[in-house]
Amino acid sequence: MTNKSFIIKNLHCANCLNKIEAKLLSMNIIEKVEINFYTSTLNLELNSELDEDILITMINKAFDNIEPGSFVLYKEETTDNKIQKKSDHKDCHGHDHDHTEINHGHNHDHGTNKVSLILLAVGSLIFAISFFIDFVLLNRYILIIAYILVGYDIVFKSFKNIKRGNFLDENFLMTIATFGAFAIGDFSEAVAVMIFYKIGEYFQERAVNNSKKSIEKLLSLKSIYANLKKSDGEIIKVKPEEVKINDIIIVKNGEKIPLDGKIILGSTSLDVSFLTGESLPYEVELESPVLSGSLNCGSIIEIRVEKLYSESTVNKIIAMVQNAAAKKPIAEKFITKFAQFYTPIVVGLAILVALIPPIFDGNFSQWFGRALIFLVISCPCALVLSIPLTFFSSIGYASKRGMLIKGGNYLEKIEKIDTVIFDKTGTLTKGKFKIDKIITADNVNENVLEVAKAGEFYSNHPIGKIISNDPTIIIKENDIKDYTEIPGKGVTTTYKGNPIQVGNKKLMETFNISIPVIETYQTIIYVAKNNTFIGAILLSDELKDDSSRAINLLKSLNINVFMLTGDNKNIALSIGKEIGLDKNNIYFELLPQDKVAKIQEIKNISKTGVVFVGDGINDAPALTLADIGIAMGKIGSDIAIEAADVVIMNDEPSKIYELISLSKTNKKILTQSIVFALGVKAIVMILGVLGIASLWLAIFADVGVALLAVLNASKILKKS
Ligand code: ADP
Ligand code: MG
Description:
The protein is of the alpha+beta class. Helix content is 50%, strand content 18%. The chain folds into five domains: 2-80, Alpha-Beta Plaits (2-Layer Sandwich); 109-215 and 326-380 and 664-718, no CATH class; 226-316, Calcium-transporting ATPase, cytoplasmic transduction domain A (Distorted Sandwich); 403-428 and 545-649, Rossmann fold (3-Layer(aba) Sandwich); 434-540, Calcium-transporting ATPase, cytoplasmic domain N (3-Layer(aba) Sandwich), CATH 3.40.1110. Helix 10 packs antiparallel against helix 12 (381-400). The protein is elongated, with a radius of gyration of 31 Å.
């Protein structure tokens, strides 16, 4: 099994994707095909090795066959160019986010666009002049010249396609419609059809390019180099991919952090707006963890790298966005299928209109003209493009606001859900525990904090971290052996030869350690040594500022909101009360497997789907089981990013409401576009057949519908 990635060039036709996919899949060697129209990438899974040149020739043949002029390049070829040509310097104050660094080779596209744009302009000018020339023959010559300038490539493409036996695409429709108009002497109309078709195409292309740009903006999270500090102090520029764990890198003012790590020298403020959509500067100091993709807006810092590039936040985000388009929403699948049937049916009907009625009234040229109107209006391009464009705009907008949606299909599902389940710690609460009190058992001569700290030495749990980060006692790593973390319960280890347990009531029960009753509204962590209770640590966590608001907003949408937690009853109920949750919707003292069972139970009751929101700690299975899993807060957490369908990059639970609202807007715009486009087309077709609509009206209606659909989709991106 090998994977190959390519950059696609000159592919403008969104509804050719299915055909290309099918064509590639029909090759024995290709197992899986993923084409991303928006990022212009092609990913293939091959079942055996093949000579690179032969492979690319095969692929290019398939591309050129379906969209003449399109081809692919190996991804690396373009990556190298990028590094040579572009610098990685950004201006913090200027917020030069629009400056796209990653050039996917659109230059070539723009080049051809420019030529055809000039031809279009010249052709249109000649077309306008033709109105002032009364001498019929000259007028017609002039119009033919205008036609050639504007439409030669459409005609050329359609002939090329007919030769290959796949006609019935938009090029073909436009060609026969215009040739037909010439045949019945409507020269002006013929040229006008072409001009407007080309203008429509131009705007669609621009819309696609715009959304491509907003994705590229996201992709520009990636740094082109890292300043690696070698052991002799020399600093060299290397690709982020070449940096190893524990290497030291330097990030200067205005540079993006290339890899995840920890600050070991200096302090600064970061612009994390690329990651979270949050524009406030973010202060970091010695020992602070930093994420790749953040922009250094202050002084120089040194970072010890903690993850390889392939594992780092930026790479994960980019992979997520690139894969988003591969998970096609139902609406998009439907419309590409629809277009496949629609065009032949319309062409068939047009032929019937041209042939049957004249048998009765003998007026061939009139019915021929009406059939042409039918053809002009039938072009399905607006729909085929606007639906993926709408989803893409929504996903692009969401990523700007710090919500990464892994695919259009999830956006579709979110729109329908009726239940949201929140995890407590780290999701509704900050997960930043504070040690309130340390209790030592009677007649025990032990330092409870020291023992607890030894137990939590390796823990990544928010509770474990706060205990192990306490600076008052120093623990030697050598004294610790046999560390085990028991999800939802706590940790066990051996410290200086003594077995130690640190965790909740359930952990103590597991080890048959008897514990006293402690009445409190805090989180209680029991500490045991040599299987005997020696004390407890009482911790408290704070609610997030917008948890209450988030719950209220969701309730206002008639969504049933639940809270699940592994924490104790007292806390669960008091927090639930504070944020306005129904007592019956709160479940506590749950182990990770209990959470999964509860979600299944709630899923069975829910009619239209359940969202689970967690921080990825101890709840990856829950994220997977829910209809939609949303991970928040821990942008560095691998499991969260992998198990979730949506990742919320900042800490606000109210983003869930924003996400649901967005999914509703997305649906509304889709419905508008579809109903409007099909409606107008149906009306004009009927009017055309009845002889009421002229070819002119058909032209304007077609272009108008396409433009409105595209504008409608881009409305989402503009909303702010
Ligand atoms: P929540 O469901 O609130 O997000 P978790 O499932 O992560 O909580 O943990 C549930 C409970 O398990 C915690 O409240 C704590 O009592 C206990 N626990 C889990 N991990 C640890 C640990 N490393 N140290 C101590 N207690 C832990
Ligand atoms: Mg949790």
